[in-house]
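Lab notes, practical 5.
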Amino acid sequence: MATKTTSTRDLILSLLKKRNQLTVSAIAVVLDITEMAVRRHLNTLERDGIIETTLLRQAMGRPTNVYQLSNEGQEMFPRNYGMLTVELLKDLVEMDGVEKVQKLFQKRMERQKERYEKKMVIQQFDDKVYELARLQSEEGYMAEVTEEEDGSFTFKEYNCPIAEVARQFPFICESELQLFKEVLQTENIECQMCMASGQESHCSYKIYKTDQSEAGT
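Output from the prediction step:
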């Protein structure tokens, strides 16, 4: 796991990773702690969506609950998706040129646009900006919107799920900017900060209403 602590919580997660499914009693035996202590940790982990429970029916006796990692719990263990993706894309550039990678991300942007537009059944521009933030947050970008005194919006993203890839292929960020413009149906968006540069803690966009731009703001 990413953390190097040996707390009971982490020991339980490691056990579930190795054994796939375990009962409360089995966990208690392996860790040499009480079942009450195990249940306390399992209740918290299940509440946080890190583990899930299944009712196991047995040939004899009453059904019993077994615990396993949820998809979210599985993702708490080391993954190397970013580096693998970067390596594959670099190989693609070497074989077919950078234009091929650009086309791939253009298709990705088009899929996102189609998916977002189906949910963007909103007429007011302001509401669309907030809805875009919600949709981006669902994708893991931790987006936040602030409406400024001049009527413009500051659109920030505190996480980038594809940061490693974007650092190697900066045109991916241009693709995101284009996605915003097309979904919001405006050209009046500026990228002011970008995490892909490696020098910023978040991405920040300034979004102007169309009438502001026409007024010279």
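Observations recorded by the TA: The two ends are 50 Å apart (CA to CA). Strands lie at 51-56, 64-69, 143-147, 153-157, 189-193, 203-207.
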